[in-house]
Amino acid sequence: xxxxxxxxxxxxxxxxxxxxxxxxxxxxxxxxxxxxxxxxxxxxxxxxxxxxxxxxxxxxxxxxxxxxxxxxxxxxxxxxxxxxxxxxxxxxxxxxxxxxxxxxxxxxxxxxxxxxxxxxxxxxxxxxxxxxxxxxxxxxxxxxxxxxxxxxxxxxxxxxxxxxxxxxxxxxxxxxxxxxxxxxxxxxxxxxxxxxxxxxxxxxxx
Length: 206
Description:
The chain is an alpha+beta fold.
């Protein structure tokens, strides 16, 4: 595990060492795994969450991470939920942050928007299996990976709509939140109120 992290740590900085939130993600994981490595005993999820929270809290007042303060607060809030796996969330964000340009582009804005939706509405985001044979979880936003790969240019600009699928009674809440943020235009493609199923399209805002 530590070996994997060491490789990813330097890869992250070669991708974009100037973006503060990337530093937060890889440094938090580095701190967690080094802390866990100091003991031979199994470290449960609650303890791992606590290690991450204690590491992240001082960053809120650190001027170096001022640009990422809101994201850090969101991670801390999620980590305080007893059943939440903060480590997995950070790993997921870490992987996404390596995949896209981290400048002020539509790809970056989508990344920020999904993090904001999860913090506000407790709706995590996952990629949908293209074979469609996985069991979909309620109150979870699903995205098609090919929409991300083909919907954005190398520079991160959006050139095609992105679909969001969810089974929840918060479909309208998601639409309202997206449109209130003003980064994308959310359109309801399909909405089955009785089944609590929704298909939303995120269009680039011109």
